[in-house]
Amino acid sequence: MKRTVFAVALNHPSQTAAWDAAFHAPPYQALPKTPVWFIKPRNTHRANHQAIALPSGEQTYSGGTLAVVIGRRARKVSEAHAQEYIAGFALANELSLAEESFYRPAIQAKCRDGFCPLGEAAPLEDAYHLDIITEVNGVEKQRWNTRELHRSAPQLVAALSEFATLEPGDVILLGTPQQRVPVNEGDDVTVRAAGLTPLVSHFRHDAPAQTQPQAHPTLFALGLNYADHASELDFKAPDSPLVFIKAPNTLTGDNAVSVRPDGVDYMHYECELVVVIGKTARNVRREDALDYVAGYTVCNDYAVRDYLENYYRPNLRVKSRDTLTPLLPTVVAREQVPDAQNLALQTFINGELRQSGNTRDMVFDVPYLVSWLSEFMTLQPGDMIATGTPKGLADVRPGDEVVVEIEGVGRLTNRIVSEQQYEESLNEKN
Ligand code: CA
């Protein structure tokens, strides 16, 4: 059983209150309308009682919280029925550096190695009036109650499963108060709640690296990584990589279908070169970075722009919907691709060329991206980086055949279907 750890930000009133004035000003302009999701990837996962190494030169904060553990496949589940899909609860620690913005995905603050220890799951009679207590070296530092949360566990299961199918073992972290608990080298941190095994983490500089076979490989994606595409969207190219993480629910294969949601105005394709990591990479120098690349493949990183809000942008509702990331399963070995920074990219809709670019126009090239990510997190074999798309986007409609192709790497075919067509195809399978 492979698990995905979803988390929700801004779910505690102390947090939304602290940011309220800022959220009415640029770049946010308005309060979030839907839950602000993010992912804690596999390098962050730790079990109970494991040691965690703190990043040096930065203050780390503990975020004791409750995790909902999914018990069976949940797709478009209503709030009223959500309880039937919950196997139990566990304690978790959503560790983070200080957050100075909610505009861009907070990869550097939240995805450090070991930043998501998770305890053992158990059923709870009442998860909705539960004190979550954090102790540092045996002294209580924080206490809050799950009844304070803006959205309850069933509401979050409903909101997430509306666009992402949840699998048994997947978890959702329910959020933390604005005020977090600083943790320092040598601390033992315990998160407790009645009815659950306490979650104990030891913060030690010599903590060993951990691999997490029960977690999915991490799929990173780049926003605005081609200068021409950034200008097409009225953005200046970013001065550091804009990286977000996509969950495995969004992946599909070659010759598969992708669903265009009903009632949206703009869903577009994105032809992207995908880097596949071949060996564990931590603090890799740019000049050595290609040694850590196993090879390359192609994806189509669809986006539904109607769902864009100015929080952790682009958010999971835009970028991690079921079926919206077709990925070619074959990986072309690095040795077969002499220069990954000189490959033609093309997208065809119904046979007509609509997008054309070259990987030489990437703002941050492959060696830079591998090196940059490995500065603050461990990349593991099988992790993937979708490196962004050039200009030439267009709306796609049910019935369209979309082909993305990268010179020397591969060609991926996909067909757009409506929600109704998709439901019918699922019913036929069952
Ligand atoms: Ca993209």
Can you summarize this structure?
This protein has 430 residues and is an alpha+beta fold. The protein has helices at 13-23, 107-110, 153-161, 227-232, 316-319, 366-376, 419-429, and strands at 5-9, 36-40, 45-46, 51-52, 60-62, 64-70, 86-93, 96-97, 116-117, 131-136, 139-145, 171-173, 181-183, 188-192, 199-203, 219-223, 242-246, 251-252, 256-260, 267-268, 271-277, 293-300, 303-304, 325-326, 332-333, 344-349, 352-358, 384-386, 401-406, 410-418.
Word description of this protein:
The chain folds into two domains: 5-203, Fumarylacetoacetate hydrolase, domain 2; 219-429, Fumarylacetoacetate hydrolase, domain 2 (Alpha-Beta Complex), CATH 3.90.850. Helix content is 13%, strand content 32%. It is built from seven helices and 30 strands. The chain is globular and about 65 Å long. The site of calcium ion (CA) has 7 residues, from loops.
Helix percent band: 10-25%
Total domain modules: 2
CATH architecture classification name of the largest domain: Alpha-Beta Complex
Q: What value does the Rg take, in angstroms?
A: 21 Å
Mean pLDDT: 95
Mass-distribution shape? globular
Helix count equals 7
Tell me how many strands there are.
30
- What oligomeric assembly is this protein in? single chain
Strand order of the largest sheet: 17-16-28-21-22-25
CATH fold name of the largest domain: Fumarylacetoacetate hydrolase, domain 2
Low-confidence stretches: none
Strand content: 25-35%
Structural classification: alpha+beta
CA-CA gap between termini: 22 Å
The major pleated sheet works out as: 6 strands, mixed
- Cofactors, ions, other ligands: calcium ion
The top-level CATH class of the largest domain is: Alpha Beta
